[in-house]
Amino acid sequence: MRILIKGGRVIDPASRIDAVRDIYIEEGTIKKVSANLKLNKTNIKVIDARGKVVVPGLIDMHTHLREPGREDEETIASGTRAACQGGFTSVCCMPNTQPVTDNQAQVEFVMSKAQKEGWVNVYPIGAITKGLSGEELSPIGELKEAGVVGITDDGEPVANSMIMRRALEYSKMFKLPVISHCEDKNLSVDGLMNEGYFSTILGMRGIPRQAEEITVSRDIMLAGMTGGHLHIAHVSTAGSVEMIRRAKRMNIKVTAETAPHYFTLTEDAVKTYDTNTKMNPPLRTASDVKAIKRGLQDGTIDCIACDHAPHLDEEKNQEYELAPFGIIGLETSLPLILTELVDKKVLTLREAIKKVTLNPARILGLHKGTLAVGADADITIIDTRLTKTIDKFESQSKNSPFIGYKLKGFACYTIIGGRICLAEGALVSR
Amino acid sequence: MKLKDRNLLGIETLDPAEIDLILNTAVPFKQMFTRSVKKVPTLRGKTVVNLFYEPSTRTRASFELAEKRLSADVLNISVATSSVVKGESLIDTAKTIEAMKADFVVIRHSMAGAPHLLARTINASIINAGDGMHEHPTQALLDLFTIREKKGRIEKLNVVIVGDILHSRVARSNIWGLNKMGAKVTVVGPVTLIPSHIEDLKVKVSHKLEEVLPEADVIYVLRMQRERQKQHLFPSLREYSELYGVDMDKLAKCKKDVIVMHPGPMNRGIEISSEVADSSYSVITEQVTNGIAVRMAVLYLLGGGAENVEGAE
Q1: What pLDDT does B84 receive?
Q2: Chain B residues 107-136 with CB within 8 Å of chain A
Q3: Which fold has domain B137-284?
Q4: What pTM does this model have?
Q5: Interface list for A 300-339 with B (CB within 8 A)
Q6: In the structure, what pLDDT confidence band is assigned to residue B312 with cuts at 50, 70 and 90?
Q7: How many CB atoms lie within 10 A of CB A169?
Q8: Are A203 and B172 contacting, i.e. CB atoms less than 8 angstroms apart?
Q9: Buried/exposed code over B270-297 (b: 16+ C-beta within 10 A; e: otherwise)
Q10: Is A307 considered catalytic here?
Q11: Cβ–Cβ contact A20 with B under 8 A
Q12: Which of A60, A302, A307, A376 is flagged as catalytic?
């Protein structure tokens, strides 16, 4: 298929372009990027992108697709539909499925299923330890061979410092980042929300910020010791931001992500006992939100990843204590970034786009995240002026605290490998 | 005047005028207890479901008597005898109760926010009879009633709440209520049992009971649950009792007209000595009587007060 994207504002942080350009796509790759392209070719699909923003296809590096094991909550098909609707062309799926992605066969299952049914590129993340038990390393070399782009025990911390040390050392041979879910479980035990004023008045057990920060601090020390690549998942506290900032100054190989809810919501959202405010790490305070935004501004936090965590209505619609942690995010991530960060001048559009394209691509070693000539034609076209109220989802689950939010800025085209999968805001074909 | 909300989920959301209204309404109900026929037809034809997910003797009995003295039809569902043990969700239980056309649901639950979930799901008026560590509003109301009755006022009284503040819904509801009514509240207990940011609720915090006793008009003693010791919150019950147990020696430091309160059930010899519990300072049995009157007032007012119920006072 030949596609010409005409007249859009092209932002490609990798090639330092932010200007009105035309992009010509043929055979799944980007062939030409220049102003006022004149082509002597026929049978070209022309997309009028005037007034729109054309960026490299968005990458979400922290997604739970739930398949295999919890296909009632989400499948590779439904989760990648949600991703496509949200403007993502690639997602990285977490290994805490049933069974766990801790061996080659599981990686191959996910990849072949994604090949057959997926709407976007799917990159599996493998487990650090077998069965996420925290006790014995997975066959990390074999996982890499099978196609994983990182390793994590996400959902569970690696409690044993020796195991974490070995993971950081061993993964260096395969250039895989170790993605750490930072939580001291002895300290967060039975906690439901941030420990503070609101946990006190709501009568719920608190998760102190130190439960996250102690592990961030330990992992930074281990990264410094081993030279391994540490990536901190879902940063939620001011203290974590500060430690990562210092570690980067010390040239320790650490990168970090945060999720849109950590720069949008605070712990007071829990007041109504709405279980869609229950996530791990929990929503923190206004000063944490401020620090997260500062961390995004100065580059301490490299990426924004939504930690898409689908759960059924009947799982969420029960007592707060019984409801599972996590919210969906793929379809609200981009609009929240644009509404909360770009519109409110926390980040420029270019900086924001970099955190969901080039930066995750670099961290994971993906040949994605750019609109340079010769690159895969993964492209997202954004209508930054479109305002919509969040009320429906492609995801099989609906557990979002943002239902009813009026947000500004949505994907209108998602192009993956030169195929138009989302057109004028509607899913077309995979 | 009426209550603003059709549910009573906590004291936090009540304003002082509403608390006054409930306390004033409870006065004639209490007077009625001295009559030979302790019953009015106020809630005749109305159905009240007492949904208890936690063992409770006095709160459940108190609600049941209040309901019966208002002539309501009463249904008791407790966890041991219901389908809950078969794994029915709160939502499904709620829908079943809704289908039975209950007018009120009194819920006791071990998890904070369960009454709120119920209130979002069904149309009946929900009364929180204690939810986890969150609130126990009718307990606080009966405590306020008792203080007002004994002291003639609540405003400017020094109230000392001593014990396990962290896990106590009674403490939280009383802090809200006492503050709203103008009392000065001090919470006392070991550091490990004082929740974070409690000062933001406009209370003073102390860890030395003896130091705050001379000023106290009311000593409110909380129940100490033995299992807290296993959670590393304090080293031994003996040590707790020495530091925070209210006995006659400690009471000797207090004003002559101090009153001692306890929500029950008591651990005699741990948080309160038998001597104190049975002394003239203690108003603990009075609290029980007042509990019925206050719960009658709450049911009466949530039912719409004089407008919607038959044969009001």
Answers
A1: 57
A2: 109, 111-114, 116-117, 131-135
A3: Rossmann fold (3.40.50)
A4: 0.94
A5: 314, 317-322
A6: very low
A7: 15
A8: yes
A9: bbbbeebbeeebbbbebbbebbbbbbbb
A10: yes
A11: no
A12: A307
Q: Is A271's Cβ below 8 Å from some Cβ in B?
A: no
Residue B308 has a pLDDT of 47
Residues A160 and A210 sit within 8 Å (Cβ to Cβ): no
> In this complex, is the C-beta atom of B197 within 8 Å of any C-beta atom belonging to chain A?
yes
Same domain for A68 and A194, yes or no, is yes
Q: Is residue A185 part of a domain?
A: yes
Position B313 pLDDT exceeds 50:
no
Q: How far are the Cα atoms of A157, A357, B121 from residue A186, in angstroms, in the given order? A: 11, 36, 35
pLDDT in tens, A184-233: 999 999 999 999 999 999 999 999 999 999 999 999 999 999 999 999 99
What is this model's ipTM?
A: 0.92
Look up tokens 């001011």; give the residue. A238
* Shortest CA gap A318–chain B (Å): 7
Cis peptide leading into residue A281 (ω within 30°): yes
CA distance B22 to B263: 19
Between CA A194 and CA A115 the distance in angstroms is: 40
Q: What is the CATH number of the domain that holds A197?
A: 3.20.20.140
Contact B122, B98 (CB under 8 A): yes
Decide if A225 contacts A248 (C-beta within 8 A).
Answer: no
Asked if pLDDT for residue B86 goes beyond 80, the answer is no
Q: Is B228 on the interface with A (CB under 8 A)?
A: no
